[in-house]
Amino acid sequence: MSSQRLVVLDMDSTFIQQEVIDLLAAHAGVGAEVAAITEKSMRGDVDFSSSLAERVALLKGLPVEIFDQVRREITLSHGAQKMVDQLHAGGHKVAVVSGGFENIIHPIMRSVGVDYFRANHLESIDGFLTGRTIGAVIDRAAKAAFLQEIAEQLGIPLEQTVAVGDGANDIGMMEVAGLSIAFNAKPKVQAVAKFTINDGNLLQVLTFMGITD
């Protein structure tokens, strides 16, 4: 059996330090409203798909040029790049699956060297956001399905997969992965994860996988 492993991470507040939708909301002048909905969604108090639709609707009218500005406001979590590099050095694969937005993360994922990624897509018409997303919503079930899909595509058994996340939306993929890691996570997520990282350092993922320098 191959020793190759697949690490799948959530993006917002896990692979990166920010919540992208909150950054967009700040530019739209609806930061407080969106942040409150985001918090309830991450705790698992509200359905993700409906909360996403509610938040995205508040972004209607933003120009697409805002994407470049928001990218400049994004910082990777501590150790993210080194973690990716060391996993690649060991022959492993890295994926990011996000309830955030592909419009913004695509260039970032490519520059960091993430092998696979999937996220929601913000709809725009004539250069402005419509307040809607296009295609299937990346929710809890979709994240779990993504992990299984990529593992099958690579021929990696589920017991050799790792799921890392912080919100209720990540619990599904944690339940199907061989190893689950809660990262600066909500109590509901820490309760289901095998390991917990609370210092914001993604390099600990390697430690829990038994990978050393």
Write out key terms for the chains shown.
globular, alpha/beta, 7-stranded mixed sheet, 213 residues, 11 helices, single chain, Rossmann fold
Topology:
Elements: E1 6-9, H1 11-15, H2 20-28, H3 31-43, H4 48-57, H5 66-72, H6 80-89, E2 93-101, H7 102-112, E3 116-125, E4 128-134, H8 140-154, E5 161-165, H9 171-176, E6 179-183, H10 187-190, E7 195-197, H11 204-208
Parallel strand pairs: 1-2, 1-5, 2-3, 5-6, 6-7
Antiparallel strand pairs: 3-4
Helix pairs in contact: 2-3, 3-4, 5-7
Word description of this protein:
45% of the residues lie in helices and 20% in strands. It contains eleven helices and seven strands. Strand 2 (93-101), helix 7 (102-112) and strand 3 (116-125) form a beta-alpha-beta unit. The longest helix is centred in the C-terminal third of the chain and has 15 residues, at 140-154. Helix 2 (20-28) packs antiparallel against helix 3, helix 3 (31-43) packs antiparallel against helix 4 (48-57) and helix 5 (66-72) crosses helix 7 (102-112). The model has no long low-confidence stretch (mean pLDDT 95). By secondary structure, the chain is α/β, with parallel strands linked by helices. The chain has a single domain (6-208), classed as 3-Layer(aba) Sandwich (Rossmann fold). Strands 4-3-2-1-5-6-7 form a seven-stranded mixed β-sheet, sandwiched between helices.
